[in-house]
Amino acid sequence: MKRDLIVFGEDWGGLPSSTQHLIRRLSQDRKVIWVNSIGLRRPTLTINDCKRAWQKITTRTVADKHSSNNAITPDSLTVVNPSTLPAPRTALGRKLAAGMLRNQLAPIIARAKLHNPIMWTSLPTAVDVSDQLGASSLVYYCGDDFSSLAGVDHHTVAKREQELAQKADLILTASETLYSRFSDKCTRLLPHGVDYDLFSTPSPRAKDLPDNGRPTAGFYGSLSEWLDYKMLAKTITQLPDWNFVFIGKPCEAALSLKQYNNVTLLGPKPHHELPSYSQHWSASLLPFVNNAQIKACNPLKLREYLATGRPVISTPFPAVNEYRSYVCVVQTANEMAIALKNTARQASNVHQQTAVKAHTWDARAEKLANWLDAL
Questions:
Q1: Which of 101, 241, 298, 302 allows an S-S link to 319, with CB 3.0 to 4.6 Å?
Q2: Do 214 and 168 reside in the same domain of the chain?
Q3: Domain check: are 171 and 257 in the same one?
Q4: How far apart are the C-alpha atoms of 209 and 54, rounded to whole Å?
Q5: Which range of residues forms the domain containing residue 81?
Q6: pLDDT tens-digit profile of 193-244?
């Protein structure tokens, strides 16, 4: 009988993270209690933080599986919206936060009648409750370099991660850079997978994707400060006869691209609709800055881009090295502009699709299940 899971991750729903991809598949033969984000920093008095705090307070503790926001939640998975103190720094704050979580989760876990549960956390701040929920094994899934991640209390989270790494029975890392930070004894490399069928099966062209006869360069994902907007701006001005399309919630720097007539910001799109864009633009972009966060990342969109068969143009970072034969790596705006010109009339590349075909989320989850069974 498969062991059940208590999972601490980001808020369930929206664009699926690697944790959601994996847990969704593991939930096919085990029960899961999914605990929405308990935070990686203390809230401030900004409008966004106040809105998020209010939403956390007013949302039902156990999410309704049949509500519109949770329509894709598996029957075996229970989503919990916890109320707690985000990223407490003091010993008293940590004790209070852990007590709040334990009191909310204990009755939910008891009702679920979990079988020998494993606690899985993608957030180091959950270490304070790791021995209070009846789990006999602890898994830490490290998908980011929290010491360089924006919007994080770096000192607090780094200390919690050290404690978590010492307590964990299994550490999973999404990249080789992250793998090198932990002991080999209980650490396993688990690179991101891809929903190959979704991205390789032909999809109809999205109606709001520019269709003016010009070639199009596209990007989807987090339009945050880790994109190289200076490089993008120079490339955009060099290619006035190209469309540049960006999908995602834009930061201020991303909004500045609206000044160019050949730029379209489409806002966020559901994950299942992304192939209707990425299959139909001329080239996919990975225009990252060179910093510690990017060096440690393994972006989900890399394999998704490759699965479409469309050309991929990227700045250099470690995770792209595995696919150097299929990705055009550039370091300047001039190189990016030249690379884009070379892709304008390229047909789909079946070889790059083949390169990621075996790296599905199903395959990743199967390997992960074997590791969990061995705990």
A1: 298
A2: no
A3: no
A4: 35
A5: 5-193+360-373
A6: 999 999 999 999 999 999 999 999 999 999 999 999 999 999 999 999 999 9
